[in-house]
Amino acid sequence: MRSSQLLYQQITGLKPIKVIDLVSQQSPQLETAIEHGGAGDQGIMYGYACRSKYNYLPYGYWLVNTIAKRLDSYREKTNAFLPDGKVQAVLCENNVEKLTVNVQHKADADLESLRSCIKDDVLYDIDATNIVIDEDTGFIRGGFENDTGLTGRKIMVDTYGGLVPHGGGAFSGKDPSKVDRSAAYMCRFVAKNIVANGYAQECCVSVSYDFGQEHPAMLHVIVDGAYSSAVMEIVKTNFDFRPQAIIERLDLKKMKYMQTATYGHFTNPDYPWEQIVTI
User: Fold this and answer.
1) What is the distance between the alpha carbons of residues 249 and 246, in angstroms, rounded to a whole number?
2) What is the per-residue pLDDT for 245?
3) What is d(CA 14, CA 25) in angstroms, rounded to the nearest whole number?
4) Can you tell me the distance from the alpha carbon of 67 to that of 86, in angstroms, rounded to the nearest whole number?
5) Are 67 and 85 in contact (CB under 8 A)?
6) What 3 state SS string does 192-254 have?
7) Nearest-CA neighbor of 105 among 139, 151, 72, 153?
8) Percent of the chain residues topping a pLDDT of 90
9) Half-sphere exposure for 30 (CA within 13 Å, toward CB)
10) What is the separation of C-alpha 53 from the centre of its chain, rounded to a whole number of angstroms?
11) Which of 20, 107, 126, 209 fits a 20 to 30 Å CA distance from 165?
12) CA torsion, points 79, 81, 82, 88, in degrees to nearest 10?
């Protein structure tokens, strides 16, 4: 181990990470499909929005993301916390029945003091029937070192917290030519604008593609729990779901995606797919 790595481990208590770059070129068949404006894969994507003051998102999903942001902000001001952590909320009619918070911490941290700090400085305005913080055991090891079954980001956390269907394709790590990402953004863009323009209180948009094909195999819109041919016509008139058209409409080639890897892909009103337009 080099001296700089040893010094890093002594100071932080963390093992250095070795990064191996094994980036390979995309297969010719995929590249050809994309070059001709077609979808690089088959699949189904969903987008959702509801009438709320939480950026048109369900309260529970907004809540856990808000708590996660507060934990990160608080971690930067204290020496007790480490980067890994999870937040989960169980709600019934917007009432928080149980809130579970797990935060990675240093081995010598006092758990009772840590729990008290989180309640006082992070959850100070959260009204929950039952709050559980780092229950039973400590959370000392985190990230890849802790969980050998770790496969990537949780796609339900990246989207709507399990409250809406998901086609199964992850977002992070994919460029905008991948409809798993770009079409899911477009579905959210459409759903949010349907609600924002007063056509519904709640909207769910779904689209599917066939490999190499430019036009969607399916486009479906549910508003307030039912299909509406009138809203469907509004969507078809105002929104183009061809992969290249999505990239151009949302300016996805200029987007810096690193920031989307935290706090979900739909919580930041500054993202291009979060913009409200007149339709």
Assistant:
1) 5
2) 97
3) 33
4) 10
5) no
6) HHHHHCCCCCEEEEEEEECCCCCCCCEEEEEECCEECHHHHHHHHHHCCCCHHHHHHHCCHHH
7) 139
8) 59
9) 9
10) 19
11) 126
12) -160
Distance of CA 163 to the CA centre of its chain: 13
d(CA 197, CA 276): 8
Mean pLDDT in residue range 98-108: 91
Placement of tokens 């061809």 in the chain: 242
Secondary structure (DSSP) of the chain: --HHHHHHHHHHS-PPPPP-----PPPHHHHHHHHTT--SS-EEEEEEEESSTTTTS-HHHHHHHHHHHHHHHHHTT-SSEEEEEEEEEEEETTEEEEEEEEEEE-TT--HHHHHHHHHHHTSTT--BS-EEES-SS---S-HHHH-TT--S--HHHHTTTTSS---S---TT--TTSHHHHHHHHHHHHHHHHHHTTS-SEEEEEEEE-TT-SS-SEEEEEETTEE-HHHHHHHHHH---SHHHHHHHTTGGG--GGGGGSS-SSS-TTSGGG-----
Q: How far apart are CA 229 and CA 22, in angstroms?
A: 48
CA distance 224 to 204: 9
Question: Using CA atoms, how far apart are residues 239 and 234, in angstroms rounded to an integer?
Answer: 8
pLDDT exceeds 50 at position 7: yes
Q: In this structure, is the dihedral angle defined by the CA atoms of residues 119, 123, 129 and 131, taken in order, positive or negative?
A: negative
| The dihedral sign for the CA sequence 33, 215, 165, 58 | positive
Q: What CA–CA distance (Å, rounded) separates 87 from 96?
A: 13
Write out pLDDT tens, residues 219-277.
999 999 999 999 999 999 999 999 999 999 999 999 999 999 889 999 999 999 999 99
